[in-house]
Amino acid sequence: MSVNPELVGREFSPVGPYLVGREKVREFARAVLATNPIYLDVAAARTAGHADVVAPPTFPVVIQELTLAQLLAEPDANIDFTRVVHGDQRFSFSRDIVAGDELMATLSVTSVKSLGGHSMVTSESVMTDARGDHVVTATSTLVVRGDE
Amino acid sequence: MTTGLTVGETVATTTVHLDRTSLVRYAGASGDFNPIHYREDIAQSVGLPGVLAHGMLTMGLAIQPVLEFLGTKGRVIDYGVRFTRPVLIDAIAGADVSTAVVVGAVMDDAVRFDLTVTYDGNTVLGKAQVQVVFD
Hints:
Chain A has helices at 22-31, 42-47, 61-73, and strands spanning 15-19, 84-93, 102-115, 118-128, 134-144. Chain A is of the alpha+beta class. Chain B has a domain at 10-19 and 54-133: Hotdog Thioesterase (Thiol Ester Dehydrase, Chain A, Roll).
């Protein structure tokens, strides 16, 4: 069964506000083996001119996952979680995320394609801050592998 | 402002070792609990050769040498990759993932870094590019 092509254009209800926690940022930074102290150490981040620890560039995936969960749970989406692999990913930033930010994220599906029994679903998760300003757009393509 | 960088110049290379603990740590940190990243039986039941690293873990660690190179200068405005090959994490041996960072393009106040990320002699990310502005 392939992914429902009628998902294209669908926009989900906004997720959040997601409060970016300092310890969450540090936990994530350690998990991606960050070495630059602005991602780990408050004093180093402040010396570099940031309000608090900076979230590593792939941190928005944490919030993107919350929005993708809406897509995976969509009754008519027809996406089997265990058959999903990640095809591509992009983050486009207006500014860095720092601990203390409160972000809202809104997912929309931009493309559904079928190729060789697999389905490819591309979606954008647009994240804005408490002032409503754009922070980052996370774009991902999920590949849903067909039956062998 | 001039960045002092030349197209084609290699600015950093790193190799990191991943094991199953790395995957569990990343699962917790990211919230991605897809069992193909920690359950051999489930990975195999969906036709995969074994437990794979999260693509996002590979993407997340591949940019670290860029961030280390930048120090407190510059800001990442765009980072994109394609996941072209899985990184298999053997339960005992783990896996070594290597990254080379080359200057891909130099603009007025911006630089594009191109990443070559390899595991077991093969590249695992395609078109892995980081754009940085110096403002």
